[in-house]
Amino acid sequence: MRRSTFAVLTMGAFLMAAPGLHAQEAGAEAEAPAVEAPADLQVIAGSILNPGSVDPMPLNFEFTGSGDDLEGAITVPAVEDMRIVMNELMLTDSRFTFSFQAPGNSNYIECDLERQDDDSFSGECFDDTGTVVPMEIGAFEG
Question: 3-state class of 57 per DSSP?
């Protein structure tokens, strides 16, 4: 995924994470105990800072299920009917990792976010070209 793709995502499409480097971390993380998230639908605000942007792009993260059945999707409030399914969700006491396929592109993006003191998550998303972008997700409710 190139910087131009990130710009397109900023204007409507949207982006996140990286393969190779974090695939190893995700494998190690899989051994950590899963943290239960509430089973009901939760919409949690977040953001991503695309390359060349000064202001973060607002995102919404939709979560349902819990533990091994946790499912998620990303929506972009500024873009009607855009919903990106999150894959390989792993939520532990200290990390939240996931991947997704960029809209209109076959590249996968992987995200590795650390839990903050306020239970929100902050970290970086990577693509296969080495482009890195910061991402934040608010805390789960309840």
Answer: strand
Rg of the Cα atoms in the chain: 14
Give the span between the Cα atoms of 133 and 125, in whole angstroms.
Answer: 5
CA 83 to chain centre: 13
pLDDT score of 43 more than 60: yes
Q: In sequence order, what DSSP letters do the residues of 115-136 get, joined into one string?
A: EPTTS-EEEEEE-TT--EEEEE
Number of helical H runs and strand E runs in the chain = 2, 8
Beta bridge partners of 132: 126
Q: What is the pLDDT of residues 83-135, one digit of tens each?
A: 999 999 999 999 999 999 877 777 789 999 999 999 999 999 998 888 899 99
Give the Cβ contact number of residue 31 at 10 Å. Answer: 7
